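Tokens as discussed.
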């Protein structure tokens, strides 16, 4: 094999030089760069090849430094304290926020089930929850979970906020704080990103979400193009699926609730009542530890059962 000057070299020496450069400059993607480095050694001055590779390496580092700077800028807002408006003045008091969940402890429990986001990511989520509580005055915040998308994922938080004045809604719409809208949900695509509040649910959204299957993309404003047609965007579809998952995975001991009396004979029962412990007919015995392992002693939350039986939901 001859180089650019026409001087010959043996295969062993050439491979030795190739591997030395790969180990030095491309330890993580050596296989992808193997042919390129070999070609450069054969057709360029091998004495200057090191300088040429360092130039390319410099651009890779420059891009990595830019990404690191963006990361630090986003993360800093979760750790900075309020600064005084004037130099030498007193810093404003940190506003008190409602209690936020201890995600670090909860993450250890999830790890027992084989689910983990990584200790650093969970810590960033913990700080992000504190920012969310401070900006929304939400109470009873809880980490609902994570839904993956084709372009980006959704971290989901749930909590309570004061009811807002509703615009014109359908006759079956359940007001904030009741029914499927008893809780409010926020989503973000990153532990360093901004939280976006999802809209309240309409009955038609749940009915439509039951009849279609669509992959999430991570774009809340994306139009859902499917058959049957979905009259809403991905944020509405996401909110509907969150409600379905929440109600479908909520269980209570069998017999702790009872159905209310129908408004008229043959009418659909719309009310769920907890049994009155002072009423002998409503006595409920908490299942023993051994009984809790029996599947028949658990039922879906009555609210979700009624919703699943309703034709308008």
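Sequence:
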């Amino acid at each position: 094999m001859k180089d650019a000057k026409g001087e010959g070299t043996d295969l062993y020496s050439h491979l030795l030089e190739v591997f030395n450069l790969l180990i030095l400059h491309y330890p993580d993607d050596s296989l992808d760069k193997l042919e390129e480095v070999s070609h450069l050694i054969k057709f360029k001055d091998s004495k200057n090849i090191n300088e040429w590779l360092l130039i390319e390496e410099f651009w890779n580092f420059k891009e990595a430094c830019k990404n690191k700077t963006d990361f630090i800028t986003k993360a800093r807002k979760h750790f900075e304290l309020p600064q005084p408006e004037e130099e030498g003045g007193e810093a404003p008091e940190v506003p008190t926020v409602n209690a936020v969940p201890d995600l670090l402890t909860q993450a250890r429990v999830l790890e027992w089930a084989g689910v983990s986001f990584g200790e650093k990511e969970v810590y960033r989520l913990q700080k992000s929850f504190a920012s969310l509580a401070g900006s929304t005055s939400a109470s009873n915040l809880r980490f609902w979970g994570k839904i993956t998308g084709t372009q980006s994922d959704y971290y989901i938080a749930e909590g309570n906020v004061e009811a807002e004045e509703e615009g014109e809604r359908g006759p079956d719409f359940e007001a904030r704080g009741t029914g499927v809208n008893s809780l409010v949900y926020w989503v973000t695509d990153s532990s360093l990103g901004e939280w976006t509040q999802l809209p309240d649910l309409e009955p038609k959204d749940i009915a439509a979400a039951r009849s279609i299957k669509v992959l999430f993309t991570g774009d809340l404003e994306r139009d859902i193009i499917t058959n049957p047609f979905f009259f809403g965007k991905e944020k509405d579809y996401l909110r509907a699926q969150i409600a379905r998952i929440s109600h479908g995975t909520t269980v209570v001991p069998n017999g702790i609730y009872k159905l209310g009396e129908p408004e008229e004979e043959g009418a659909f029962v719309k009310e769920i009542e907890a049994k009155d412990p002072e009423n002998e007919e409503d006595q409920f015995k908490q299942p023993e530890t051994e009984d809790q392992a029996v599947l028949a002693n658990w039922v879906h939350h009555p609210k979700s059962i009624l919703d699943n039986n309703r034709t308008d939901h």
